[in-house]
C-alpha cells in the first residue's frame, strides 16, 4: 500500500511516501509559512504519487476526535495564521472523497509509531515525551491514542520543585510547570545558555530530577508499559541514565513491578525510531 | 438480568444484588478479616441468589489485565493476609464455569459507574479521585478503564508545594507526594486533628490548592471530559468550589476549551452516584 504522511510542524512540514511496514521511500521538507503557501507545496509533492491513505501528525492544539464536526481543525494557537485552520478538510478537498485520512498530534503520532515499530513494539501502551524547545507528550492506553476533551498536554503538568531551585520558571502560562522548569527554553533562561552548551553536572542532575517526576507521574496516571523520552535535550550524553536513577529514588519502590524496580533501564528509554519517527508516526495513524 | 457485585475494601466487603440498570436490590456489609473467613461470608450471601454475572471492585494493587495469568489476584499489599490472594479464582470456584466475572480496582469501578449512570453519563472519559484516608484514582479513556503495566495510582503523583507550606508530607514512600500533602491522613498530621474537625480557612485553601493541581494534572494527562472528586474529605462544605477556583487560577487559560474555562462548575464535580457508587461500579464492570 502506498501511504502519504505529513508531519506538520511550526517551522517545517515534512511530507513523505511510505508503506504499511513503516518504510519511507521519499520525503521532502517544506518551510511553514501561511497555510495557503504551505499547503500548495504540500499538495504539489503528493501530486501523481498515487497514495491510497494519508496520515497527518500536526502541531497542536488540534481537534483529534473523529466524531467532532471540527475534526482535524487546528485550534487556538499562537501561530495566528493557522488558528482555526481546517487542516483535514483542506487535505480532503485535494484527494478523492473516499480516501482514508487521519489526523492526530505529532507527539501522539510518535507514540503510536514507537508502539508499532519502535521502543514499545508489541505492547499495548506507552507514553512519549519530547523534551525540546517545549515539552510535548503523546500516549497510548490499551492500544488507542489518548483523546478526550482534547489530547495529552502533559508537558505542562505540575511537579515538585527541587528544594534548592529558585528559578521562577519559563512558562508564560504557569511559570513553574514542567515545561517551565525543564524544557530547552527553561534551561536557556535558567543557565544563560542553550542545553547543548551546558556541561555543569548540577544542571543535568536538576533536569533529571524533573524528568524523573515526569516519568513517575506518567506511570501513576497512564500506567504505561514503556516510557520514552525524545527531543533535542535528550541528546545530552547520560541524561537518560540520570533520569532512571532519580526515578527509582523518587518512586522509592511504590509500584512493586519488576519492570519499574529491576528493569528500569528497559522501562524508561530513548526512542527506538530514528529521525523519521514523526513521519512514521503520521503514517501509522492510518494503519 | 441478576448481577452480583462485590466492593472489596480493607475494612469491609460490601456485597449486593442488582441489575443492568445499576439498581441495587439487596446488600450486605461483611467485615474484612482473613480471606478465608471473609470469603466464606461472601459466598454465603450469594448462595441461591441466581446471579448471572458478577463484578468485583477491589482495593489494590490488583492485576486488572484479563490477558495476564494472574488476572484478579491481589498483588503486594500491606494487608499481609491478602497478599497474592487470587480473588477472582476463588470466586470462580464458587460459581459455574461459564459465568462472566470481572475484576478491577474499586476506584476504576467507581469511575466506570459514574460514566454509565452518574456525573459523566453519556461521555467516553472521566477521572475519579477519592480523597479519604488516602487518595485513589480511577480513569476511563475512550470508553475503557485505564489498564497497562498496572492501573492508575495517581494519588501518589507529584505536585508543586505551596510556597508557604513546609509540612514534610505523610506518605511513607514519598513524603510530599499528593497523598502525602492532601489526604485525610496528611490533614490530620499537618493540623493535629481530623478533616471533619478542621474549620480554618487556610487549611481548606491549601487543600484546594493541591486538589486543583490534581485536576490540572489529570486534565493534561488523560484529557477527560469530566473530573470527579469523592471521598470523605470532599464532604467539607464548599471545598469543591475552592478547587474549581484554584484550578482556573493555576491553569490560567492554557487549555482553550469552554468546558474548562467557562463551565468549570460542570467540569470538576462531586460524584453523581450516592453511597452505592462503589457497588454500582462493581456491577458496571460486567456490562
Ligand atoms: N546535545 C544536546 N545536549 C543538550 N541539549 C541539546 C542538545 N542538542 C539539542 N539540545 C537542546 O534541545 C532543544 C531543541 O530541541 P529539538 O527537539 O531539537 O527542537 P524543537 O523542540 O524546537 O523541535 C534546544 O533547547 C537545544 O539546546
Ligand atoms: N465533613 C468532613 N469534612 C472534612 N473531612 C471529612 C469530613 N468527613 C470525613 N472527612 C475526612 O475524610 C476521611 C475519611 O474518608 P473516607 O472516604 O470516608 O474513608 P476511607 O478513605 O478510609 O474509605 C477522614 O480523614 C475524615 O477526617
Ligand atoms: Zn506551562
Ligand atoms: Zn506517595
Automatic annotation (TrEMBL), chains A, B:
PROSITE patterns to which the protein is assigned, alphabetical: ROK (PS01125)
Reactions accelerated catalytically: D-fructose + ATP = D-fructose 6-phosphate + ADP + H(+)
Any one GO molecular-function label of the UniProt entry: ATP binding
Listed Pfam families: ROK
Record key words, sorted: ATP-binding, Carbohydrate metabolism, Kinase, Magnesium, Metal-binding, Nucleotide-binding, Transferase, Zinc
Coiled coil start-end: none
InterPro entries: ATPase_NBD (IPR043129), Carb_Metab_Reg_Kinase/Isom (IPR051804), ROK (IPR000600), ROK_cs (IPR049874)
Record EC number: 2.7.1.4
Origin: domain of life: Bacteria
Similarity remark: Belongs to the ROK (NagC/XylR) family.
Protein name: fructokinase
Organism, as annotated: Virgibacillus indicus
Amino acid at each position: 500500500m502506498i501511504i502519504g504522511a505529513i508531519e506538520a510542524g511550526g517551522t517545517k512540514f515534512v511530507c513523505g511516501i511510505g508503506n504499511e511496514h513503516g518504510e519511507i521511500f521519499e520525503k521532502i521538507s517544506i518551510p511553514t509559512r501561511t497555510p495557503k503557501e504551505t499547503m500548495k507545496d504540500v499538495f504539489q509533492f503528493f501530486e501523481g504519487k498515487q497514495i491510497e491513505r494519508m496520515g497527518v501528525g500536526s502541531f497542536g492544539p488540534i481537534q483529534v476526535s473523529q466524531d467532532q464536526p471540527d475534526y482535524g481543525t487546528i485550534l487556538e494557537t499562537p501561530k495566528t495564521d493557522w488558528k482555526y485552520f481546517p487542516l483535514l478538510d483542506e487535505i480532503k478537498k485535494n484527494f478523492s472523497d473516499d480516501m482514508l485520512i487521519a489526523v492526530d498530534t505529532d507527539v501522539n503520532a510518535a507514540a503510536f509509531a514507537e508502539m508499532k515499530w519502535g521502543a514499545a513494539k508489541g505492547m499495548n501502551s506507552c507514553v512519549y515525551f519530547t523534551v525540546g524547545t517545549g515539552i510535548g507528550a503523546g500516549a497510548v492506553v490499551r492500544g488507542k491514542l489518548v483523546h478526550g476533551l482534547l489530547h495529552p498536554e502533559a508537558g505542562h503538568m505540575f511537579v515538585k520543585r527541587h528544594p534548592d531551585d529558585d528559578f521562577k520558571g519559563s512558562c508564560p502560562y504557569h511559570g513553574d510547570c514542567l515545561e517551565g522548569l525543564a524544557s530547552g527554553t527553561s534551561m536557556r533562561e535558567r543557565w544563560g545558555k542553550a542545553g547543548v552548551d551546558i556541561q555543569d553536572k548540577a544542571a543535568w542532575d536538576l533536569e533529571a530530577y524533573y524528568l524523573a517526576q515526569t516519568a513517575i507521574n506518567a506511570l501513576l496516571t497512564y500506567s504505561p508499559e514503556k516510557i520514552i523520552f525524545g527531543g533535542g535535550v535528550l541528546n545530552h550524553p547520560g541524561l537518560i541514565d540520570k533520569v532512571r536513577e532519580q526515578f527509582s529514588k523518587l518512586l522509592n519502590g511504590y509500584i512493586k513491578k519488576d519492570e519499574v524496580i529491576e528493569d528500569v533501564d528497559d522501562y524508561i528509554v530513548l526512542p527506538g525510531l530514528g529521525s523519521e519517527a514523526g513521519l512514521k508516526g503520521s503514517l501509522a495513524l492510518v494503519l
